[in-house]
Write a structure and sequence with these properties.
Number of domains: 1
Structural class: mainly alpha
Number of strands: 2
Order of helices and strands: HHHHHEHHEHHH
Strand order of the largest sheet: 1-2
Number of helices: 10
Shape: globular
Helix content: over 70%
Oligomer: single chain
Strand content: under 5%
CATH architecture: Up-down Bundle
């Protein structure tokens, strides 16, 4: 009789069905990244409240704070290994509030109100574009793709254009003619959100990579500029990011045109006897 191994001896003392047991996953929510997401949502709600009260100088910076919190929650979830489908859905819902509804209400109370129904529907178009942009982003993130670029203007950047413009001129607009340019401020970012124009993504920047000391010095200069003249620096940054996509598109088309010009043209002379033999 063959000697029994230690594994076979242990199997005799196990209860039936022990091998089929699967450890249950603990139900719950990752608290740390969700706190940043809730802070993002609160900033969007507070922006709506202050905009309805006419305090535009307080309402506009809240969208900037929501943008910072939105950029931190995903990074913290990845660093701590607490990413989940629930967190992704909660982040999208918070973004619809902070970067869709909040800038639409802010622009409506600040400059679209004199336009009547045209202003109301323009704000709704901005909200719809932000929701569609976020839904498309979730689908593209699940299927993969080039992470260096966003397809369409990101909703935080579109909200930043509205918020920075209001922050530069917080008194608001009450005249019908003066409020007409606000349509461009709202409709152009809305159309760019649902477009297929590629915008540069900064999520692929490796913060752990060693950089020259001059990079840290430039960051210090940027912080000094924002602290000394926040209104003009922030509005310049938001519109520069908007223009960067069109500048990159023009450069890429110019390069492709130069490559086509350098390609040799096909020969159009008479066909010789040697060429005929080679063709055979």
């Amino acid at each position: 009789m063959a000697p029994t191994s230690d594994t076979e001896r242990l199997r005799r003392f196990r209860r039936p069905g022990h091998e089929r047991r699967v450890p249950l996953r603990r139900r719950g929510v990752s608290l740390l990244p969700s706190l940043f997401t809730m802070g993002n949502m609160f900033c969007g709600y507070a922006c709506i409240v202050y905009a309805m009260r006419g305090e535009f100088e307080t309402a506009a910076p809240l969208i900037g704070i929501a943008f910072i919190l939105d950029s931190l929650d995903g990074r913290i979830a990845r660093l701590t290994g607490t990413t989940s489908a629930f967190g992704v859905e909660l982040d999208s819902l918070a973004d619809v509030i902070s970067f869709g509804i909040a800038p639409a209400i802010l622009s409506l109370a600040w400059g679209l109100q004199p336009l009547g129904r045209l202003g109301y529907f323009s704000g709704f178009l901005f909200v719809s574009a932000a929701a569609l942009r976020l839904a498309r982003f979730n689908i593209q993130s699940a299927t993969g793709g080039d992470k260096r670029y966003f397809v369409g203007l990101p909703s935080p950047a579109a909200a930043g254009i509205v918020a920075s413009t209001v922050y530069v001129y917080p008194p608001g607009l009450q005249d019908y003619r003066a409020a007409l340019p606000v349509l461009i401020l709202v409709l152009v970012p809305a159309l760019l959100m649902v477009s297929t124009i590629r915008f540069r993504s900064f999520k692929t920047i490796d913060l752990q990579m060693r950089r020259p000391y001059t990079v840290l010095f430039l960051i210090a200069l940027g912080i000094m500029a924002i602290a000394s003249h926040p209104r003009y620096v922030l509005v310049g940054m938001s519109y520069s990011y908007l223009a960067s996509a069109f500048i990159g598109l023009a450069i890429s088309r110019f390069r492709h045109r130069g490559v086509r010009d350098l390609e040799p043209a096909p020969a159009t002379g008479p066909v010789t006897q040697t060429a005929r033999r080679d063709a055979r």
